[in-house]
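Q: Structure tokens for this one, please.
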Amino acid sequence: MRVFDVKSGPMPRHPVRTLCNRLTRKLHRWGAIMIAIPLLVVIGSGIALQLKKELAWIQPPTMKGQGPTMTLGLDEVLAIAGSEPDAEIVSWNDVDRLDVRPDKGIVKVRAVNHWEVQIDMATGAVLSSMYRRSDLIESIHDGSFIHDRVKLWVFLPSGVVLLALWLTGIYLWALPIVMKRKGKAKRQYRKTHP
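A: Here is the predicted structure, written as tokens:
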């Protein structure tokens, strides 16, 4: 027998479960709307980062030098990298980082303007000089491209909401299955215990 409330009609059999279902659906709906744009940015840039080793447009392929022995000094590396006009390297202030790869026999010089010069460690020859977009795509991916605070105030909360969406999605997916099994068990019990 169901209990009736004069104002709202029949009372639900399980008010806590009904409230939980309602809140879960609202969280799922509004959370998805709230994180749509940051999530699209993360997904799009994440796909590009997955392809960075496959596409030279994103990240220049790593070349192979003649040997693992470094015969160049740091001043020579700076001078060789500075000979590439697109790199715009005049001093160490123009260099973002050096990436020494002894197994490949090269030194990668990354300029502040995202230009990458790959130099043979043994001969000093320039093996590659290309623009590197992967660092820019990484900064878009984590939100620091806009501002460092966007990382913490937009992308981090979006990640937390995405986790909540995942959890509520599992709940919403599993709920009908559980209810169906409970209903089946009740029907079986009523058949065997009239």
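A few notes: The helical segments are 15-34, 36-50, 74-82, 134-142, 148-192. The chain has five helices and six strands.
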